[in-house]
Amino acid sequence: METESEPYVRLASLRQLHQVMADMNTARSLADTLQTVADGAVQALGYEMACVNLVRPDGDLVVAAFAGNSAAEALITGRVGSRESWERRLSMGERWGDLVFIPHTEGWVLDDDVPQWFTDGPAPRFEDEWHPSDRLFAPMYAPGVQGGGSGELLGVISVDRPRNGRRPGAWGREALQMYAFQAAIAISNARLRANMQRALVRLEREQQALRASEESFRQAFEYAPSGMAIAEMGGEQHGRILRTNDALCRLLGRPASAMRRYSFSDLVHPEDIGTLLRTSAEGGRAELRLGRRDGTYVWVSLRNSVVADAADGPRFLLTHVEDIEERKRRELQLAHRASHDSLTGLPNSAELRSRLAARLCRRPSHAELESLDAAYSHPAFDMPAGHGFDFRPGTDGYDGYDHHVHTVAPEDGRDDGTKGLAVLFCDLDGFKSINDRFGHNAGDAVLIEVARRLSRGVRDGDTVARLGGDEFVILADGLGRADAQDLAVRLRNEIIQPIRAEGRAVRVGASFGIGWAHCGMTADEVLKSADERMYVEKRSRPKQHRRAG
């Protein structure tokens, strides 16, 4: 029977319980929340000891908080019980709603790894008196799913020995069950706050790292010793320059504000636009020329890489521009030295043969054409109707010469109006005597001046080459026989003028042989033909010794 004082005690407990629940939800950390749960079970619910067992990520339960007995707290705090042992305990005993009560009469079977304590006390004298070996557990389930163990288990509150020495009645059981429910909410909220705090800390660290990375990129971009640019990628404005560093502005002599009006296709040399287009839009490298503000061009090595503004944001081209003008100048100088005469600066023998060979193809002979025609007429080469191709000589599909504009020559002995590639072989007369009398320095001066006069006497696009020694060759395209003879006369008149060498005026003569290049000949055959014609011209004079080149 309820005494007169019990309603007042119960009211005071409710007030204290309300305060404890408020404290649980305002604790600063998960650890503070767990300790508040344990303390509240002792202070507001009237148990002598309380323990909070929290489910770990691996599923086992650890003693996370303890209240009511410092000796027992030091003994079991931090100890772990397996999930299997806990599930066994929660499935036995008496069910008081969501609570599990294991009386001392069944406690003898609790031989497992669940952390527990033992209290001393006399055996109960009454039926509802608490026995030292009684166990009472209040499971805590995730908010929104309550009862029957069907929800996610967050932990278990274990309590021992109510202060009044009796097993809890209906009100006490309901209070503990409600308390476990509110504790689960508080623990879930504390975990959520902890996760949010960790996420915020991680986000702040990532933002700091991003800011540091952006600052590092900005520093590297702005103060890089070579040119850097960022350009749009994709869309109508693809390739438009968005940002440049000082090094690129200095290299091209253009301010940053002006650079933003261009794309690299606007700045590249017209001859290099194909190289730029062949460079991959998503990464690649090219060597080309970019225009300076003063109208000159500079050789650069251009490398593209793709950068993203954000995970799903727009992509940009990061372009690295390196000045290679000096290297290109050395390469061109080396290439020029390999293909040009070191004394006169004219194309050398190898370059002459290369240019001449580029104009010539090997025409099949008449016998070869007949043999080829016979082979294609064989039944084995019959094409099915509608095939669309006929590779026999003389057909549209095959012309016998692989789509080449053939070099032709005028008829021998007369000027028939045909324009061809004239090859003028020039040999200096009297050059050996200058070498013998005045030395090689004087001879070199004569060769240099002759080269200058020959170059001055031909058209743009014609080739003047030094074959070796005192022999020169002129390639002049689009001339008839009379044109070639007139050219030879003019060049001879230029050469025979006095030449200043080693402080004195000297003279040399010049003999010209005119040959004609046409497809079917080799470069050596063309040169030999011109040389032979020169000897015909000099047949009335003795052949002079020529200094080796």
Structural commentary:
With 549 residues, the protein is an alpha+beta fold. Helices cover 40% and strands 22% of the residues. The protein is built from 16 helices and 18 strands. The strands form four sheets. Strands 3-2-1-7-6-5-4 form a seven-stranded antiparallel sheet. Strand 10 and strand 11 form a beta hairpin. Helix 1 packs parallel to helix 5 and helix 13 runs antiparallel to helix 14. The longest helix is centred in the middle third of the chain and has 53 residues. It is rod-shaped. The N and C termini lie far apart (136 Å). The N terminus and C terminus are likely disordered.
Portion of residues within helices:
25-40%
Q: What is the number of beta strands?
A: 18
Strand content: 15-25%
Largest beta-sheet characterization: 7 strands, antiparallel
C-alpha termini separation: 136 Å
The side-by-side strand order for the widest beta sheet comes to: 3-2-1-7-6-5-4
Number of helices: 16
The low-pLDDT segments are 1-6, 145-149, 383-402, 543-549
Radius of gyration: 52 Å
Outline type: rod-shaped
Helix-strand makeup class: alpha+beta
The overall pLDDT, averaged over residues, is 82
